[in-house]
Batch of 3 targets.
Target 1
Amino acid sequence: MDFAAWMATVQARTETALGRFLPAAATAPGRLHDGMRYAALGGGKRVRPLLCHAAGEVLGAEAERLDVAACAVEMIHAYSLVHDDLPCMDDDVLRRGKPTCHVEFDEATALLVGDALQTLAFQVLAEQAVADPARQLAMLSLLARASGSRGMAGGQAIDLASIGHPLDEAALRDMHRRKTGALLQASVLMGAATGHADDRALNALSDYGAALGLAFQIVDDILDLTQATDKLGKTAGKDLDANKPTYVTVLGMHEARRQAEVLRDQALAALARSGLDDGARLAWLADLVVERES
């Protein structure tokens, strides 16, 4: 299967699995469940599920088990987008080419949608058989750390606190490793934990995910200034308008692009030392992250 066909297959599997795990809109409370489905279904590149499947497949994981891990990560991602878009955060009205959750519903519903998606992610991961009990518990811990105060939520807190304040490159890197990188790295490691990996492979995949996660955010910073709103599916230029420090404002466009390329090289080097027989899809995903235009 070529890369584009494989991507489409994983994206379709993720959509189907999410639809199965999410409560039906007809189930009370209907408005909340409708909002959860609105936020999680029908859009997005599904980069995190793609990373989860790619890492798991090369380590012999079953597709049905990878669906569970991928959906848990994607629910966390979807909840973070709903909360990020709220007026008290980034105050945006467009996400994935459609009105944000609080615009389509209301702020209180959007807040609860994010809360419910977060908790459902852990419920699904706890209740479905994806690995032996010890590894499944480790996966729950991994997802919690990646999304909590030392990961994604902590990165968002730093991001909000930095508005109007200069950050040096080290501080910016730390913020982005938490806010965006932690969950992307966790996506790789969740897939790996669903399969059969030795310490050598796990350490290399951890390094791969860390480099790719930071590269993803650098490219996001670049696209925010170089692409139009209709191309991005979200409001372009928001970070600059909000006076937020980004890789482009701190380092300049040329150096930001160079940093993304360096991080891709680091990710590919990590794959090379992983001992995996076929990391082609993970390598393709590294290219996709750095070369994407939306």
Note: The longest helix spans residues 199-226.
Target 2
Amino acid sequence: MTEAFFPNPFRTDGLWFKGNLHSHSTNSDGLLNPFQLAYLYKANGYHFLSITDHNKLTETKSIDEKFKDFVLIPGEEVDAGKSETNTSYHLVALNLREEIQQAQYPQRVIDQVLNQDGELLLGHPYWSSLTVNDLLGLTDYLGIEIFNSTCHFLIGKGYSTVHWDDLLIRGKFSFGFAVDDVHWHSNPHRPTDAFYAWVMVKAKELTAESLMESLRNGLFYSSTGPEILDVEVSNEALRVKTTTVQAINFMANNSLGERFTAAAKPLTEAAYKVRGKETYIRIEVEDGKGGTAWTNPITFR
């Protein structure tokens, strides 16, 4: 019998916290200094932020102490190695104690991060021209950036959900993260690359330790607009409840899955009957205004 597995944040005790896990300050190529970044993210309703300057661990403890009910997670974006298409990997390291040096091999960066009790995300695979072989060649990373605001607004390469499905269809499990990668870039169509993408984490308390524990366990979802309110999982069916949206997609392997679209009125829920041949299903919802929210994958064993 097929058995569904999903670390369900919607049925887990705790509180919801909103955060961005990829940002840049004047310590690398960002426009704002670390204090300004933290101040503006807090002012815009975020509960936590990771400042991940390029190849530099930005000191955040002194800034963190100035804010109430806001957490800074120390991080760094490390350039490493060469991909199948001769591009660099951009590795987003979270919860670091010490700076990671640039390395020839990306796997060594991952290992160094894990040795510090940190976690690593593979940054913007589409923007970096990474192939599925590049992603399959690495182990022990927490997930990939499935949406990146800066990559989206600058050159239209923000979505990496196909890379995500390429991994999942091959049995390589990965969490998916939506991030801003904020540099404070702007273009005529959007004044900034900030406050557009986030993760919603279900944690016991607003501390770096509690947030990281929940991220490791998949107790979060990602969004650029809609809210996911509940997911009910059984071996026979999946049901999702959301804020008002225009489409709900159950994305699965091969030709399985289903799309529900609004007709006379917007959708607020949908149910999918499991056929029995799914190896994974992930749910994404679209609000019709350009915003999307994504659950992490539900796997079937």
Note: The radius of gyration is 19 Å.
Target 3
Amino acid sequence: MGALEGKVAVVTGASRGIGEAIAIALADDGADLAVLARTQPDLEKTAAEVRESGRKACVVVCDVASSASVEAGFEGVWEAFGRLDILVNNAGSRQNFKTVDTLPEEEWDAVVDVNLKGTFLCSREAARLMMRNGGGSVVNVASIAGPVAFPRIGAYCAAKAGVVALTKVMAAEWAEHHIRVNAVAPGWIESPMNVELRTEPKNVEMFAHLRSQTFLKRFGRPREVADVVTFLASPAASYIDGEVIFIDGGWTAV
């Protein structure tokens, strides 16, 4: 039996990349899954992979930036499973490269809405459900772009820094309800969002430079993030609360 046997987990942004890997890792450790994203076909693929592990899977099409959509989505999770133990806030969107002085307000809003507001909305609904069954665990996917200044992605950096701060506040507020809240901060991870960087000939030098900045001289793999998330969600991390774990191959240790 896995450490998460009998637990129900929600993973947002579970249609591909890191979110897909997280859903599969949680299922491998025994959890049943509700997978959330905006695109149903990709979610169905993730759900099928979860079921291959012998676990139950529920597909919920949801826009994490919409309070109405989030509320309906989590109501659907409760109807399907009758409990909620784990939430992984992975849904996110990247920003087009622009300096702050040239960044349109609508793009700022779009990036902050998905990355930060979405974390708030989903965590709020999840906590209300977790309180019904005596506690749970929330794991937020932040980024090294939270504490580090990356030029030309100011909205993304601000949103991820907000996720780190919100993680600590929620941990403080919900400890009395036996809800632990932690975050992971991935660095350069192989994902659909950076496939052009890793494969296009024009990006060879940049790709090599970024790899060279890590101690391990490579990009991470989605499963390497997923395994840390699964640990934080499990009883093995029962005395870890309000923390941010960096998964960056040593990039921020320099």
Note: The chain has a mean pLDDT of 95.
